[in-house]
C-alpha cells in the first residue's frame, strides 16, 4: 500500500507539472509569436513577401478613449486578440477614400474562414456626422467608426516631420495592439489581401 501511495504521489506531481507547463504556454504563446514576427521582419523584406510598408520598429498603439459615430466610447484594447485594419480619412471622404474603404472590405472578406479574426476601423478627421460620410458608410455597416484628435493621430505618423493632414492610409495592427504595416492611398487591393492572408496563416494569435 505504501508503494502504491508513493507511485500515486509521483503521478500527481507529474500531472501538476504538465498542467503548469501547459498554462504557461497558453499565456506566453501570443507574446512569443508576436516577438517572432517582429524579429523576422527582415526576412519578409528579403523574401519579397510583404506588399505593404513595414512599420519599423512596430509600435504599440496608445489605448486612449475615442468617440464612436454609432454612439458611446471605444478603446483599442476592446479588440485585443483581433487583427485590425485601421483606415484614417477626412470626414469629406473623397473618391480615393471611398475606394480604399472598398479595398479594406475586400481584404477582410477575402480571408474566408479567418474573417472573424479581422476587424475594420475607420478613424475620421473632422465631423463624424457629415452627410457625405454617412452616405459612404451605408456600404460598410460592420465597420467601427471613431473620431480622433491630433494626439491620437500622432502615433500613426511614419515620419517625424509628416503633416497630420497628409495621413490617409490603411494600417494593419496585430492582435497585441502593435502597428506593424501600412499602405499608401493608391495601393492595389491584392497587396492587402496577400499580406493579411500571410499573417493569418502563420500567426496563431487572433
Describe this structure in words.
The chain has 206 residues and is an alpha+beta fold. Helix 3 runs parallel beside helix 6. Helices cover 41% and strands 21% of the residues. The radius of gyration is 21 Å and the shape is globular. It has an 8-stranded mixed β-sheet, covered by helices on one side. It starts with a helix and ends with a helix. A hairpin with a 4-residue loop joins strand 7 and strand 8.
* Structural class by sheet pairing and helices: alpha+beta
**What's the alpha carbon Rg, rounded to whole Å?**
21 Å
Task: Give the overall silhouette.
Answer: globular
Mean pLDDT: 84
Question: Which percent bin holds the helix content?
Answer: 40-55%
The major β-sheet equals: 8 strands, mixed
The residue ranges in which pLDDT falls below 50 over 5 or more consecutive positions are 43-47
Describe the secondary structure blueprint for this structure:
Layout: H1 2-39, H2 41-47, E1 53-60, E2 66-68, E3 73-74, E4 83-90, H3 95-109, E5 118-125, H4 131-136, E6 144-147, H5 150-154, E7 170-173, E8 178-183, H6 189-202
Parallel strand pairs: 4-5, 5-6
Antiparallel strand pairs: 1-8, 2-3, 2-6, 4-7, 7-8
Sum this structure up briefly:
Helices cover 41% and strands 21% of the residues. It is α+β, with helices and mostly antiparallel strands and 206 residues long.
Note the main attributes of this structure.
206 residues, alpha+beta, 8-stranded mixed beta sheet, 21% strand, globular
